[in-house]
Amino acid sequence: MKVDSALLDSEISFEEIYERHSHSKEDSASVPIDFRRMLWLESAQEPKDYVATKKEAMELTQEALSFYLQNKVELRQSKVSKTVEEVKKIIHQLTSVISLKDIRFQPISKSDFYNDNIKVLAPNQFLITVPLKGLVGYKKQQNRRWRYYSLSGSPQVSPVRDPEDLYQWLEVNQFLKSLQQWHEMDVIIEGDIIPAKVLQVFRNLVDISIKTCSLTSKANLLDSYGSTVRLEVETSVCQVEVELVPVVEIFNQWCDKARWPRCLKRWPSREKTECIKSIGFSLMACSSFHWQLNFSQAEYILMEGIDEDGGCRKTCFQVLRQMKEDVWCPGNKPIITSQHLKMVLFWTCEKYPHAKDWKIFTVSFLRLVRKLHKCVSQHFLKHYFVNGHNMFQYVSINDLDAIAQKLTLFLENPVFCWT
Fold it and tell me: Are 265 and 139 in contact (CB under 8 A)?
């Protein structure tokens, strides 16, 4: 039995279409499953005849999955790719002018290849790191010392608080070679390179350069909330909010605070782990005093070859991200971003390292959703590389509870939801 195409094109709901055909004399099993709401097997409640049910679920899932990937995930990817290309050209032009004015800031590449400086948090929310130049030969800090100063450089009676797990101090003498400009008072206090001061210099350069390179119709500098530099960028697809973050790249070293990999873990492989640790990490200027650890290159390597064993991890992640953006946490500034979902994926991959754990999409996908639900419900999501840091630490508990409720409803009756 086939559904009348005229019905599909009409204003009638898909539930009503299904209701009409479900009363047909023909076997209801012949009703096509490519409706906008697809039923899924809840793997947590496995029936006795599990083998037969798994086979049926796989058949249904493959057809439903193909429909969803084509009509939602691939469409989203196409739009995001186009947006990224347009934003990349604008930011490249802007940072090229900035670099001419201040050699400490490098321009963003406009290469067609993958650029790990650009992180898509949501379709209209990007984080772009701007590499800093002239700091070479990083060495670890040997001695702990207290800081008694404000951002203006005035002395204080009590010390500035110590960095949290995902942050650290950065001293100019931690580098074997450094440009003279990094010893200027516009960015340092008592030998410390201060993120807030670097951001202040950078923000002024961004403001001037937008006018210098005639980008006022495409990019607008937004009011600052704390230590951030945010732009509103116009593209042919949508309006995007871009946060520009200066970053110090540390090559060929691994961070002491990242106690990774953990002992006796089988994911990722030893070869991939060694590759990741040899590449290094970076430090982002996105707070007042402390530099934030960043592992974007490590995350890229993990994602790039995540299904070398023929699993469905990346597909699960793509569908999870799509459902998050459409249903569980929509909006221009979602409190849960793709970055949070990557952490959920990595932790789940580590717990389930074998290829057999990622063969059946339905089971694998619902496992990811349950992990996300647990983290959101407990208001606690450990950073994958620095597991002492809670990525939900500064997120509203009420907002998290609202998302947890949506995830609960989904797990009670797993369906594809279209907006």
Answer: no
Q: What is the mean pLDDT of residues 40-60?
A: 35
Model confidence band, residue 399 (pLDDT cutoffs 50, 70, 90)? very high
How is residue 330 written in tokens? 């929509």
Average model confidence (pLDDT) for the chain? 85
Q: ∠325-328-333 over CA atoms, to 5°?
A: 50
> Looking at this protein, which amino acid is placed at residue 184?
E
d(CA 275, CA 261): 12
pLDDT confidence bin for 417, thresholds 50/70/90:
low
Q: Which has the closest alpha carbon to 95: 133, 43, 130?
A: 130
Query: What pLDDT is attached to residue 224?
Result: 77
Which residue, among 201, 202, 242, has the nearest Cα to 218 in the 3D structure?
242
Which residue is it, tokens 């040997």?
142
Name the β-bridge partners of 219.
233
pLDDT at 9 over 70: no
- The mean per-residue pLDDT over the stretch 123-150 comes to 92
Average pLDDT over residues 101-125: 88
- Which pLDDT belongs to residue 416? 67
C-alpha dihedral over 115, 117, 121, 123, to 10 degrees?
Answer: -50
Question: How high is the pLDDT of residue 3?
Answer: 38
Domains of the chain, start order: 1-32 (no CATH), 65-412 (1.10.1410.40)
What pTM does this model have?
0.83
